[in-house]
Design brief:
Elements lengths: L12 H10 L6 E3 L2 E3 L6 E5 L6 E6 L3 H17 L7 H17 L1 H12 L3 H23 L5 E2 L6 E9 L2 E5 L5 H14 L3 E5 L6 H12 L7 E3 L4 H10 L5 E5 L2 H13 L4 E5 L5 E4 L6 H13 L11 E5 L3 H11 L21 H16 L3 E4 L3 E2 L7 E2 L2 E4 L6 H4 L6 E7 L2 H9 L3 E2 L1 E5 L3 H10 L4 E4 L14 E2 L16 E9 L2
Parallel strand pairs: 7-8, 7-10, 8-9, 10-11, 12-13, 12-20, 13-18, 17-18, 20-21
Antiparallel strand pairs: 1-2, 3-4, 5-6, 6-23, 14-17, 15-16, 19-22
Length: about 500
Amino acid sequence: MNQPVSSCTPTSQAEWQALTDKLTLEGRAYLNGAYQWAASGGTFTSISPIDGRELTAIASCDQSDADQAVMAARSAFEAGIWSQLAPAKRKAVLLRFAELIEAHGDELALLETLDMGKPISHARNVDVPATARAIRWTAEAIDKVYGELAPTPHNQIGMISREPMGVVAAIVPWNFPMIMAAWKIAPALATGNSVILKPSEKSPLSAIRLAALAEEACVPAGVFNVLPGYGHTVGRALALHMDVDCLVFTGSTNVAKQLMIYAGQSNMKRVWLEAGGKSPNIIFADAPDLKKAAAEAASAIAFNQGEVCTAGSRLLVENSIRGEFVELIREALKTWRPGHPLDPATTCGAIVDQAQLDRIIDYIGIGQSEGARLVEGGQRILENTGGLFVQPTVFDGVNNQMRIASEEIFGPVLSVIGFDTADEAVRIANDSIYGLAAAVWTSNINTAHKVAKALRAGSVWINHYDGGDMTAPFGGFKQSGNGRDKSVHAFDKYTELKATWLVLE
């Protein structure tokens, strides 16, 4: 499909459904410039969590496909058709890629929604623009990154330069399939590498479609490949491959740890990991606007159905206002009721699959058995649709030792924890294996900065939640991972530093 499926974005569920009926879904892998089925002929079925409908067959790639993709990527890299292009020329291609993503925005948004259940309004107005923006920003930056000269004696020259690594394998999650892919492939391609993208088996459709748009933008054959399949087959094959130079990943902490083992067992490939989170959202009694804080706290747990690595799943509230604030949260969550994802008015969509829904429901039961007080939600709903929907859920009276407070649920389940002092809030917030993000709400600038400095997290937001743009790095402390996505710091992951020293005669 070379032309955008729509020139006018639909404004109703019926219009989005009509567009769905026109879609031709591609399920094949993209390897060395062409779509093809897995070498084994194996497939699996993409099932929509909206209604349980089978969408299409997806190529189930394995070791043989990984070998072919790595060979194609290595050949393209060594040939220099991309790696040796001037940065400005790679920039032009990537800018065209971003334009094509925007031109096909309705189609790409629809693929995201059908595949993983997020509301179409979010897919179209958040995911698509963010994907294009990540590629465009990175492209614009690449020809503005300079090398260095060392401070040498007068008769010597020390040059410090960056070179592309070679073959990069990117394994991305199912919750933001396009955005997470863009955060990886944009800097990897911009710096001259060849890339193999392995999307989650739960939401591969948009990644597969991106491959055709990259080709249309004139990314050369072999430079960008997409291998759908399972983590234990093609994901493992890429992680263990002796000719993959760099492995980047976003997903669970347990899988991240396994990928580090695979790297050590193979060729010591560079491994960069963005893993789990259990982010604390700290509300002091002197927060400048409690209603705004409650609205953003509700969004922080309900947006994307809570399937967000930075979800504000631990809500730390100063005890003097805790009862009041819980009621404000309950009121704010009224705007986050699950509904049909193709309805533009829907703010909370379907859970990605049955396994994830079961996990969320199990944790709700665990919270009740641990003695937390269920004050909102907690039920599966809309079962008659055949879809996978759960109410945003709030527990009060939680302590940090409860599993609902210490383990990543990856669903719309909020744990409210009380505190009395700033020191206690910091202690509770840092009492976690994770360190991805955190937020602080206070009118006291000293409290804001002292707490922000003390928090062990890669991103800290003050008087808002989930801030930042492409200019700021993103990543975690502790078992939330290493390395950074976004900003010029992302280039560090995909390049090797070379020191060249010259002694003048």
